[in-house]
Amino acid sequence: MTDGTTLHPGMARRWWSQWVVGGVDHDAVLKTIAEDSGWSGRYAFLIVVSAAISLLGLLMPSVAVLIGAMLLSPLMMPIIGLGFGIATLDTREIRRTTTALLAGAAIAIALSVVLVSLSPIQTITSEIAGRTRPTLFDLLVALLSAIAGAYALIRGRGGAVVGVAIAIALMPPLAVVGFGIATLNWTVFAGSLLLFLTNAITIALTAALVARVYGFGAHLSPQHTGWQLLLFVVALGVLSVPLGTGLRQIAFEAVAQRQVRDTIRDRFPDASRLGQLDIDYAASPIRIRAMVLTPRLDPQADRALASDLQRQLDRPIDLHVDQLQVDPDAGGVEVAQIAQAGASAPDADRQQQRAAADLALIAGVDADQVRIDPQARTMTVQAAPLPG
Amino acid sequence: MEGYRALETRARQALPAWTATLSPPAATAPPAVPIDAGVIGSAALDAAAWGSARLGRALRIEGGSTAQRRAVSAGITERGGSAEAGRPGGALRLTWTPQGDDA
After folding, report:
1. Phi first, then psi: what are they for A294, rounded to 5°?
2. pLDDT band per the 50, 70, 90 thresholds, residue A353
3. ipTM score
4. Residue A82 is part of which domain span?
5. DSSP 3-state of B90
6. Chain A CA closest to residue B10
7. H helices within A16-90, ranges in order?
8. Are residues A170 and A37 in the same domain?
9. Closest chain A residue to B22 measured between Cα atoms?
10. pLDDT band at residue A388 using 50, 70 and 90 as cut-offs
11. pTM
C-alpha cells in the first residue's frame, strides 16, 4: 500500500479491489438480500407482531418490550434492499423493496391506529414523547448504523445486524405515527413521521453508498455514480434542515432550564427552596410557572426575574412565581401556607401581616406600603406599574 | 386599567376576610372607549369609572359628538366614577382632568 513514505492512489485502489472487494461474494449477498427484502407471509406476520409489541412497549412504557419489538421488526431488510437496488440501479429490485416497505409501514400504522383507539390508555408516555422530536443526532445514528448494517450484510457478520436494529429502531416511530393519528395529535404524528423518514432515507442511501464502495454496481458509468452521490448529499442536506432546527431547540431548552432554575434560586434567600418549575417553550412569550418556599416574600420577584431572564435568553418571557412563606423558626421545613394559617388559629396580628404580605405580592409592592384598617377590615394599596 | 382592576379582583378573592382596595399607579392612562356599531363598550366604561373612583380623579371626555360625550359622561358617573364632557374634535377619548381641577 505504501512505498517508503509515498502513497500511490492507484496502488491503494488495487489493494482495496483485490483484498477487500475481491473477498466479497456479490451474488450471494444480493441473493440473501433478495430473499428477505420483499413482501412475503413471514414479513407480514413479523410486521403485525412487532407493531403490536412496539405499541404496547410505548404505552406501558417499557424499554425492554420496545427492544424486543425492534429485534422482531423486519423493516430493515427492505430498506437495505432498496439501498442495494439504488446502488446497482436495479429498477425491479427498487420497486419490489419499496412496495414491501410501504405495505409494511401502512400495516404497522393502521394496526397502531386501531389498537390505540381501542386502548383505554392514551397517555403520551416518555417513550412516545421521545420519538416526536427527531434531531441531527438521529440522522447520525441512522448513518452510522446503516454503515454497520450494510457492512455486516456484505461481510456476512450477521450478529452485528441485531445491534443495528436496536440502534435504529424503525418500528416504534411507526407505532407513534399511528398513535398520533388515533389521538388526532398532529405534533406527535409529524414528529414521529419525520423520525421514520429520516431513518428510512438515511439507511437506504447510506447502504447504497457502502454497496458502491464494496464493488456493487461496478458496471455503472461515472455519470450514474455522480447522480447517486448527488442524491445522497441532497437528501441528507434536506433532512438536516428540520433536524438541525430540532437539535438547536433542544439545546436551547436544556440551557434555558438551567438558567431559569439558577436565576430563580439566586433571587430568593439561601433557606428557600424551588418546589416546582414548569416551562412552556412552545408558548410565545415563553411561559414559566414556579413555586418557591421562602422565609421572606419578595413582591418584586416576578418583574425582576422576568426582565433578568428575558435578557439572558433573549426571548420574551411570561413568568409567575408562587411564593409560599416558610416559617424560619421551624427550621425552614414547614410550609406556612396562608390558607392553612386560619385552621391553626394563629393570633390576629400574624394573620393580618400575612394578608398584607399577600396583597403586597399581588400589587407588586413592599408589604409596608399596604394601609390597614383592622376595625373596618380594609386594606388599601397602590399597585406598582404593570410591565408593558 | 383593566389589568389593575383584575389585580384587585384577584386580591379580593385571595383575601375573603378583608375588603382589599387596589388603586392603579397615578400615571396610568384612562382606557380607550371603543365604539362598535354605534354602541360604546361597557367594559371600557366600567374600567374608566373604577379607575376614576380608585384614584379620586375626574375624567374628561373629549372628541366625538356632543351626544356621545354626554352619554359617556353619564355612563361613567352612573358606575361610580367622576366625569365631565370636554371639547369636541377628533375621536372620542378619555383624559384625566388636570390635578386640582377635579369635578
Report:
1. -135, 145
2. confident
3. 0.81
4. 19-220
5. coil
6. A362
7. 26-37, 41-59, 63-72, 76-88
8. yes
9. A381
10. low
11. 0.59
